Amino acid sequence: MGRKKKKQTKPWCWYCNREFDDEKILIQHQKAKHFKCPSCHKKLYTGPGLSIHCMQVHKETIDKVPNSLPNRNNIEIEIYGMEGIPEDDIKEHEKQRQGKASGGRDDDDDDDDDGSSPMTSQGATTVTAHHSLAPQPGRPPHMPPVPTMQPMMPQGQQGPPPPWAMGQPMMPMMGPMGPMGPMGPMGPYMGGPMRHMGGHMARPPMGPAGHLGPHGGPPPPVATAPPPPQPGPTKPLFPSAAQAGGPPPKTGSAFNPQFSSAGSSGQQQSSSGGSSRNGSDKDGSEKKTLITAISSTSRIVHPDEDVSLEELRARLPKYQFTKPRPAQQQQQQQQQQRDSSPQQQSSRGSSPSHKRPHPSESPSPDDRRKQPREQPPSSQAAPTSTAAAMPGMQAGMMMTSHPQMVRPPGMMVEAPMTHMGPIVSTMGPMVSPMGPMVSTMVPMMPHSLGIPVTQCMMRPAVGAMMPAMQGMQPMGGPLQLGAMNVANGPQMGHPGIPGHMMGPPMMGAPQMIPRFSTFSTWSTLG
Amino acid sequence: MMFSAPSTFGTTSTGFGGFGNTSTTPATANPMKDFEVINPPDDSVQCLEFSPAALQQDFLVAGSWDNNVRCWEVQRDGKTVGKAQQTMGGPVLDVAWQDDGTKVYMASADKSVHCWDLGSNQKVQVAAHDAPVKTVHWIKAPTYSCIMTGSWDKTLKFWDTRSPNPIMSMQLPERVYCADVDYPMAVVGTANRNIIVYWLEQQPQECKQIESPLKYQHRCVSIFRDKKNTPAGFALGSVEGRVAIQYINAPNPRDNFTFKCHRSANGTPNGFQEIYAVNDIKFHPTHGTLATVGSDGRFSFWDKDARTKLKNSEAMEQSISCCAFNNNGQIFAYAVSYDWSKGHESYNPQKKNYIFLRPCVDELKPRTR
C-alpha cells in the first residue's frame, strides 16, 4: 500500500475548478470559456487582457470573468493555464481533491451528454480495493487506493515513511492515509494513530498536518478527542461514512460542518446509530446538508435542503396524517356514529355470525398487524371492534370516511356502503343473497359512470364491483388463487401461520378469491 | 398493436364519449398530443405501474398525494376506463403489482403498506414501518415470494404478506429514497448517496454497497438487463439532472458512465442553466432502452448502449413526476404533476394533474449501429 507515487495533480482551471488532462486543453478551455469577449467573441489570453480589451474596444467594463465560480471571478488576477494561481488556492484545491471520493470525475459542467464514462475508473478501483485492501485490518475495504493522495506529499516529505516511523509529526500517518481519498473514513484513522502517538506526540505536530489532510479543517482536538473503538477493522464501512465527506464536494466550505464537527466516530454513528431517529425528524438534528450547484452558471432546481422532495412535501400539514392506525378506527367510529345508519346495525348484527364460523380467521390480519405497534389492544375492543375485524367493512368504511374525499352531497356511496358491510361479512357462506344486491346496484351505474363528476365517479363504481364480481363467480376466471398459494409457500420460514392460505386470512372469505374477470364484467356495466 | 395506431388522436381519446373532460384540456397541457387518462388524481401523481403480463388487458395503477390509488383499464385504442380506487391514510408513495395481477401493494406516508385485492376490492395492511414507506416491490422467486418495503425509518423489510412481522429486516445507513427489484437483483438508493445491491436468490441478502457514481441526492433507480436478459446493473438518477449507468460487475469499467439530462439549454448569455431532478427512470421491457422524466416537465428516451438520446419531448406545464411502460412495451405512461422541486411556494393545488399515454414502441427502438 503506502507506496503512493502518484503523478502530478491534473491541471485545473482556477475559474471553474474543472480539471483537465493536459494544460494545453486547459488553456483552450480558459480562452473559450473565461477569456472570450462577450461582445465580439474574441478570445483573449488572460482576465486582465479581457478586461482591457473590453474597455478599449467596446468601451465596456467587465468586472467578472465569465462563467467563473462566484469566488473566482476576479478579473484582476492574471492567470494563464496553471500559471498565476494564488498559492492558497492551489493548496485548497489539493485538499479538495482529496475530499472528493477519489472520483476522478471532473468538476462536472461539461462532460458531454453521452457521458464520457468519468467515474468508471472509480468503479474499477473500488473492486480492486476490495481484494487488495480488505485483509488489512483497519482499512475500510471499499476505499480505493487512490491517486488523490499525492498532492500533499510534496509539502511534507518525499516518500511516505512507514507508518510507525514517528520521526515526523503527522506525516507518517498521512502517508498511508492517502489512499483513502474520501474524508469520512479519515476520521477513524486520525483517531487510531493518534492514540499511539499520544505519549510522545503533543499537539503542535498536528499543525502541519492540518492542511495536509484532505479535511485540513478538523483541528487537533477533534482528531484526538475521539478515541473511538476503531470503527471498522473488518466490518465494511458504510459508504455513507465515506460520502459524508462527499456530497457535493465542490465548495468545501459548504460542508465543513459535516466533518469538522462530526469527526471520525460521528460519521459512524450517523450511519448506524442513527437508526433510532425518525427519518423525517432526523434532519433537524443533523446539520443540514444543502444542495448547491457546482458552477456559477447553473442552478439546481431543488429546494436548498438536501432532503428528498417527498420528505419536504410530506412536511406540509396538509399531508400529515395524524395517528397511523388508530386514526382509521376513529374515523370509523365517527363515521358510524355520524351515520347511525342501518349500516351500523347491520354490520354489528351480522358480524358475529360471520366471525363464529371462522374462528381461525378471527384475528383479521389487520388486527394482528396492529398489535406489534404501539396501539393498545384495548382500542380494538372498542365498540367498533366488530366492524374493524371485518376486512370488508373496514375497506368500505375507509372509503366513506376518509377526510380527503370530496364527494358531492350524495348518497351515491351510501348506497353501496350499506350493502357492503353485510355482504362482505356474510360473504363466505352465502352467495345467493347477492342476486338482489346486484339489482340494487345496477341502477346506480348510470349515476356513477354517466355523470361527468370528477373524482367521485370512481367511488360508486367501486361499490359496484362487489355485485359484479358475485355475478362472475360461477364462470370462473382464468386466474385462480391456487398458483399464488404455491408461490407463497412457507419456504421463507416466516413466523406466520404456516398452513394459512394467502387468500382467506387476508382477504376475507375464500369465495372472494380474485377473479380478474370482474373487471370485464364491470366494464360491460359501464 | 392497435394502440400504436391511434385513430382518434389527442382530442377525445378518452372513454365515455368525451365526458372525461378532455375537451377542456388545452393544447399546452398536452404538447405531445398523447392519450389522456380520464379522471386523473386530484393531487400530484407519485407513482405509476402497469399490470403485469399475467393479465391480458392493461391496467394502470397510480398512487397520488391525495391518498388515493386509482386503477384504470387501458384499452387498445388508448381509451381509459376508471375501474376502482382505494384510499390510504396518507399520501401514496409507491405501488406494486403482484406478478399474477390480482393484487396491488400500496405504500403510504401513513407508514403502512396495504394489499389491495382487486378481485374483492378489499384492502388489508401487510407491512408497517416507523416512518413513511417510500418503496414497495413484489418479489417473485422460485422458492418464495414476498414484498420488499423501504422506508424513511432506514430499514428495508421483507414481508410474507400473511404475517404481521417481517421475514427479514435490514438496517440501512440512511433513509430509502428509491429502489427497484428485478429478480434476482434488488437495488436500493438512500439519502446521503448510498447504493446497496441485494441478491434475492434463496433469500434476500446484501450483495454489495456501491460507491455512488453521482454527486447529488439519489432520486430514482431502475434495474436493466443484459443481452442474456438477466439483471446486470442499474440506472440511477439524481436531483442534479444526471443519470448513471452502473453495472454490478462491469466487464469493462468503461461501461459505467453518467450522462446529463433534464437541464435547460445553456442558452442565455447571462442566464443560468437550470438543472432539474430526474424524477423517474424506466427501461423498456423489450428494447432495453430507457426513458427518463424530469422536473423540467420533459421525458426523454435514451439508448444507453449507443449512448445516444432517442427522443426529447416538449415541455409540459408542470414536472413529470413518474412514468411507466406497460408489460409489452407498447405504451409509455407519464404523469404531469407538481413534484415539489420549486418548493411549497410553487405548489398550486388548482392545477390539474394529467396522466398521458403514448404509443412508444418505435420511438424506443435502439439506435442501429
From TrEMBL, chain A:
GO CC entries: kinetochore; nucleus; spindle matrix
Protein's GO biological process: attachment of spindle microtubules to kinetochore; mitotic spindle assembly; mitotic spindle assembly checkpoint signaling
Domain of life assignment: Eukaryota
Alphabetically ordered keywords of this record: Metal-binding, Nucleus, Zinc, Zinc-finger
Compositionally biased intervals (Basic and acidic residues): 88-97, 279-289, 301-314
Biased segments, Pro residues type: 137-148, 216-236
Domain BED-type as annotated: residue spans: 6-65
Positions of the UniProt region annotated as Disordered: 84-168, 200-387
Positions with biased composition (Acidic residues): 106-115
Sequence ranges of Low complexity compositional bias: 149-158, 260-278, 324-352, 376-387
Subcellular location: Nucleus
Composition skew (Polar residues), residue ranges: 117-129
GO molecular function ontology, one term from the record: zinc ion binding
SMART domains for this protein: ZnF_C2H2 (SM00355)
Protein name in UniProt: BUB3-interacting and GLEBS motif-containing protein ZNF207 isoform X1
Source organism per UniProt: Hyalella azteca (Amphipod)
Species lineage: Eukaryota, Metazoa, Ecdysozoa, Arthropoda, Crustacea
UniProtKB/TrEMBL annotation, chain B:
Family indicated by similarity: Belongs to the WD repeat rae1 family.
Alphabetized Pfam families for the sequence: WD40
Name of protein: Protein Rae1-like
GO BP annotations listed: cell division
This protein's record includes keyword Signal: no
Any one Gene Ontology cellular component term annotated for this protein: cytoplasm
Keyword hit for Repeat: yes
WD repeat ranges per the UniProt record: 38-75, 85-126, 126-169, 278-312
Gene transcribed to yield this protein: LOC108683146
Entry keyword set: Cell cycle, Cell division, Cytoplasm, Mitosis, Nucleus, Repeat, Transport, WD repeat
Disordered: annotated segments: 14-33
Intracellular or extracellular location(s): Cytoplasm; Nucleus
Natural source organism: Hyalella azteca
